Amino acid sequence: MLRIEGLTAEIDGKEILKGIDLEVPTGEVHAIMGPNGSGKSTLSYVLSGREGYEVTGGSATLDGVDILAMEPEERAAAGLFLAFQYPVELPGVGNVTFLRTALNAIRKGRGESELDAMQFLKLARERMKALSMPEDMLKRGVNVGFSGGEKKRNEILQMALLQPSMAILDETDSGLDIDALKIVSDGVNAMRGPNFSALVITHYQRLLDYIVPDRVHVLMQGRIVKSGGPELAQELEAQGYGAVQNAA
Amino acid sequence: MPAVTETIETVQSVTESTYKWGFETDIEMEFAPKGLNEDIVRFISAKKNEPEWLLEWRLRAFSAWKAMVEPRWAAVKYPPIDYQDAHYYAAPKTKVGPKSLDEVDPELLKTYAKLGIPLREQEILAGVEGAGSVPAEGRMPVAVDAVFDSVSVATSYKERLGKEGIIFCSISEAVQEHPELVRKYLGTVVPQGDNFFAALNSAVFTDGSFVYIPKGVRCPMELSTYFRINAKSTGQFERTLIIADAGSHVSYLEGCTAPMRDENQLHAAVVELVAMDDATIKYSTVQNWYPGDAEGKGGIYNFVTKRGACRGARSKISWTQVETGSAITWKYPSCILQGEDSVGEFYSVAITNNYQQADTGTKMFHIGPRTKSTIVSKGISAGHGQNTYRGLVRIGAKAKGARNFTQCDSLLIGDLCGAHTVPYIENRCVSAKVEHEATTSRIAEDQLFYCRQRGLTQEEAVGLIVNGFCREVLKELPMEFAVEAQKLLQISLEGSVG
Ligand SMILES: Nc1ncnc2c1ncn2[C@@H]1O[C@H](COP(=O)(O)OP(=O)(O)OP(=O)(O)O)[C@@H](O)[C@H]1O
Ligand SMILES: [Mg+2]
């Protein structure tokens, strides 16, 4: 379970998160919606420990453990995964090398044995097939020259390989065509179960038709201003954020 | 701690503890008295029982050297070197040039075992300390010539190579056994008076490797020489000569390490390559001399002249270097492209960390028609390291249709280091085509964070990104050494990770 209480954070001395309270019980998928610049990505970076995002107050725990005190790689080992809004290119680093290094790092952190090249390839091919990703994407540099949609699919592939217990998906649906949206959603749904939770950041209600959330939260100006069931997303789609703001 | 600051500090904190090759072998040694004069040159020549012509050759080099001044145009800084304050000959007291491994001093065998260098023939190069995830099975054997201070102590696979007519031995032995070949080629690529350090080397060189590949023979295994400086207050002056006769093919690799000391030690080598018609020489270097400590104290001065002559048509010489060690590196492996359609290549990775300085690059002399050269240089600077690419592409009037492509990329880690690119292009042929590309970049914070979010530590992330940056060069290394080189890159940039 991810529990966030009174979380405040700033970038370059500017307060962005102004007191976030949020709980994602294990096994649930929650959605976060909110206008551009409201602090959605900031929240995902603060939770995953990015440099420059300074926590000024509050707490965040994953299964009771304080994650804010950990290094980013320790948070990853603890089961936290972030699908980036803008996946990063690593020129010259083969995707297969990266994926295997990452998986083995996580496995090591969990006290599991490392996979050799053959074992890994078998697993990667399996997962790629499920995501309809062409195999040659393994050979290419990490995200280098990938189309927007391919980058997003590569994020989901990583999630499928690393098997996190808590995934934050930051606008993974943006830039996906209709078929890809369905494939990616299937990828996320396949992970759903009693030991997996997710925080899905999106601007579009459409994604939530495929990944039906347990709860929907509205983030505005650094605060959760409203929470509700899946119907809240539909309300927002129909009325925009103005209505929520006025009501809040 | 913020990730980038941490990286910089990690990188800066590289200390002796990360240089795993810095031990000293306690062995009885024989030295020439300190100092440099004609008598010392004669002493060395006599020690090696050399013919009169070679002594004269050395003496000519020595008088040329006396008239020369040390080059100061490179972008490196160091206090004046006292050439009289070093031993120019240092050898283990066992007899020179043992015939079999059983005759080699066990201390030396232990030294090479500790360095991970296999001298026994059935053994294969396992790489330095747990280079390991690659299984040992199926790897090609590697023939090794081991040079310890001033002498070669062992050369493996000589007999097996001999069956194909290949000569692989120390240059001292070649002088005795194949004087006609040595005399024919020695100094024909790098003349005695070529430059200050080459002249010094020509006067006092003590050992090195000699390779001759006969016509039409493809050398069945990697050849390699492992240079080890051990003794205090000595310089190492090795001389390597490789001749690939028409239609032959050879891949050769050199590696080097030295103990950690406060003093700076001079390593001034000369390497000459000759490729005849349709011959190919692939020369790879993994240079890991002691780089000095985190404050810039100690380390090897690596002042080296390497040059290859593509004498024959369609011949090819390819230099690949991974330069991670040395306090100062001054070297420009070059190609003289005489034969028509001959090809020269230079692939380089140079890392400077702490107070290391590197001024390195290549010279490509296009003389014959349709000659082609490729230069790919990757410089990585961290700490207070200074890294300069210095290159010359000269295209002569007769080099019709010659082509060069140069790419120089620099990667900076932290903001105390520096990267410089100094390309010279001289083109006297209108039909020739010369292209040059250069980039300078930093390891981006988002790249590090992306890797760490996926579970990699700071050091692993830097290592992965740096290896990615160097990929085009690393893939040119023989497979046996690529893994080792990758590890070395990471280690050179790491602190002592517990
Ligand atoms: N380095 C920075 N310095 C100052 N302000 C910053 C910095 N980085 C982000 N911000 C600001 O923080 C606010 C929140 O940004 P964030 O990326 O979290 O928004 P978001 O909700 O993810 O928006 P979007 O829907 O467009 O992705 C924005 O106003 C942004 O301009
Ligand atoms: Mg965002």
UniProtKB/TrEMBL annotation, chain A:
Task: Name the CDD domains for this protein.
Answer: ABC_FeS_Assembly
What Gene3D superfamilies is this protein classified in? Answer: P-loop containing nucleotide triphosphate hydrolases (3.40.50.300)
Q: Can you give the residue ranges of the ABC transporter domain?
A: 2-246
Does the record bear ATP-binding in its keywords?
A: yes
**Keywords, in A-Z order:** ATP-binding, Nucleotide-binding
Pfam families (alphabetical) = ABC_tran (PF00005)
Q: Which family does it belong to?
A: Belongs to the ABC transporter superfamily. Ycf16 family.
Q: Which NCBIfam families match?
A: sufC
> Under which name does UniProt file this protein?
Fe-S cluster assembly ATPase SufC
What broad taxonomic lineage does this protein's source fall under? Bacteria, Pseudomonadati, Pseudomonadota, Alphaproteobacteria, Acetobacterales
UniProtKB/TrEMBL annotation, chain B:
Q: Which gene encodes it?
A: sufB
> Its family?
Belongs to the iron-sulfur cluster assembly SufBD family.
What Pfam families does the entry give?
Answer: SUFBD_core, SufBD_N
Which intervals hold domain SUF system FeS cluster assembly SufBD N-terminal? 155-219
- State the PANTHER family in the record: FES CLUSTER ASSEMBLY PROTEIN SUF, UPF0051 PROTEIN ABCI8, CHLOROPLASTIC-RELATED
All residue ranges annotated as the SUF system FeS cluster assembly SufBD core domain in the record: 227-469
Name of the protein this chain belongs to: Fe-S cluster assembly protein SufB
Q: Which domain of life is it from?
A: Bacteria
Q: Which InterPro entries does the record match to this protein?
A: Fe-S_cluster_assembly_SufBD, SUF_FeS_clus_asmbl_SufB, SUF_FeS_clus_asmbl_SufBD_core, SUF_FeS_clus_asmbl_SufBD_sf, SufBD_N
